[in-house]
Amino acid sequence: MDPNLLKKLNAERVARRAAVLVTDLGDGRDRLVREGDSVSGELGAALEKAFRSGKSGTVEVEGRNFFLNAHLPPPRLVAIGAVHISQALAPMANLAGFDIEIIDPRTAFATQARFPDVPLFAEWPEDVLKRRPFDAYTGVAALTHDPKIDDFALKSALKTGCFYVGALGSRKTHAKRVERLTTMGVTAEEIGRIHSPIGLDIGAASPAEIAVAVLGEIIAAFRSRGMAVDTAEKAA
Fold first, then answer.
1. Are the C-beta atoms of residues 90 and 100 closer than 8 Å to each other?
2. pLDDT class of 224 with cuts at 50, 70, 90
3. Running DSSP on this structure, what letter comes out for residue 50?
4. Count of Cβ atoms closer than 10 Å to residue 143 Cβ
5. What does the pLDDT read at residue 12?
6. Model confidence at 36, in pLDDT bands (50, 70, 90)?
7. Helix-, strand-, coil-residue percentages of the chain, each rounded to 5
8. In sequence order, what are the residues at sequence separation of 6 or more whose Cβ sits closer than 8 angstroms to the Cβ of residue 51?
């Protein structure tokens, strides 16, 4: 590989940005395509699929063969709130391939005894995010029901363009949340990206069932990044 191309690829990895190394198998020439770059035609469609799936492979385009080597950042899930749902969500998310971490300033809840082997930050989100900012490959689930903890994280997630932003609460609770976020400078379009009530509408009742619903919605959001998808109406 061209050393300059390798340097660019490593820079994308460090910045947690997705890129695909495209190799023309006919002449051996390489080029780097970053997520969001405009590539038309069949090759563009193949690249879009590679960015969504993260899978590398050979494609044939107009009689030419290309190898698409996909490099996607590990998807990260941040749960705001060391609650019962988070306790169930953490091992599930790990099994699904997400790097999960918990943020909750309430030290009575944010303990290693309740969250063994999970990165845990017993701090306010605004302090953690100075060191560990969100990015496009981060999903955020706000689960505390406490505006003092959830709202800053939600605003940051929306402004950053996180692939998923969800918040626990009924439609009435969410209406009040919308009012608060609006006064914080969040636009209506940004607020419209919040999944609330959080999780797929599967009739979940227990914390473990809600965690399944949340993780299913997160996976759907991750695999459909940049695509318009229809979602069933959620119950209040």
1. yes
2. confident
3. H
4. 27
5. 92
6. confident
7. 40, 20, 40
8. 18, 20, 35, 70, 72, 225, 226
Are 8 and 88 within one domain? no
Q: Count Cβ atoms below 10 Å from residue 3 Cβ, excluding itself.
A: 7
Q: Which amino acid is at 62?
A: E
Task: Take residue 169 and report the two structure tokens written for it.
Answer: 């609460």
Total count of domains within the chain:
2
Q: Which two tokens stand for residue 35?
A: 């997520």
Backbone torsions φ then ψ of 42, nearest 5 degrees: -65, -35
CATH of the domain at 109: 3.40.50.720
Asked whether residue 16 falls in the same domain as residue 113, the answer is no
**Is the CB of residue 104 less than 8 Å from the CB of residue 122?**
yes
At 129 the three-state DSSP class reads helix
Please indicate, yes or no, whether residues 150 and 51 belong to a single structural domain of this protein. no
Verify that 25 and 137 share a domain, yes or no.
Answer: no
| Residue 100 and residue 133 share a domain | yes
Q: What are the pLDDT digits (tens) for 84-127?
A: 999 999 999 999 999 999 999 999 999 999 999 999 999 999 99
